[in-house]
């Protein structure tokens, strides 16, 4: 009887160790995904004519016979941002990681974070990007009008960016 209890104890201990290890490994993988890895690849660096700092695009959906829009994951490293621009048929931003800023011309900058949705009306002059201290990733869904999606304008000045960071943090 003592041998059976000892054997059963060893079996239960072994099963418990296996379950603990499996749960711990799964939690570590989940934390790694949540903290260190984006859902989509970082993509290719975007041109400095349209972006200040390090911004990257991973295309997700291209315009085709079914979709009159494109979608892409855009990664902004700290301080990175678009230049002022407009979209002839609007744009939607889905923030999926980090925190950033969105500003329409003549309005106060808005702090945006993971889980926020920004619906940008057509022909509205605006810019968006990371904060000075945080990375941001968003999905940009941009509509076409007559085969055009965007009109790029002037860069956001460092002074305006600093003011947006200050205002958004208050």
From TrEMBL:
Residues 1-22 form the signal peptide. InterPro entries: Cupin_2, HNL-like_cupin, RmlC-like_jellyroll, RmlC_Cupin_sf. One of its GO terms (molecular function) is dioxygenase activity. Residues 74-137 form the Cupin type-2 domain. Keywords: Dioxygenase, Oxidoreductase, Signal. Gene3D superfamilies: Jelly Rolls. CDD domains: cupin_HNL-like. This is Quercetin dioxygenase-like cupin family protein. It comes from Flavobacterium aquicola.
């Amino acid at each position: 009887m003592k041998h059976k209890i000892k054997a059963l104890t060893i079996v239960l201990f072994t099963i418990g160790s296996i379950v603990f290890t499996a749960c711990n490994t799964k939690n570590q993988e989940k934390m790694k995904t949540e903290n260190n890895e984006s859902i989509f690849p970082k993509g290719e660096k975007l041109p400095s004519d349209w972006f200040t700092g390090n911004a990257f695009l991973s295309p997700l959906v291209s315009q085709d016979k079914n979709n009159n829009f494109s979608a892409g994951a855009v990664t902004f490293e700290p301080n990175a941002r678009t230049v002022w621009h407009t979209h002839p048929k609007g744009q939607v931003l889905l923030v999926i990681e980090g925190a950033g800023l969105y500003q329409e011309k003549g309005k106060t900058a808005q702090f945006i974070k993971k889980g926020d949705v920004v619906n940008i009306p057509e022909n509205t002059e605006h810019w968006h990007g990371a904060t000075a201290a945080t990375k941001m990733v968003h999905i940009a869904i941009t509509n076409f009008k007559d085969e055009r999606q965007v009109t790029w304008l002037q860069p956001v000045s460092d002074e305006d960016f600093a003011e947006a960071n200050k205002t958004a943090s208050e």
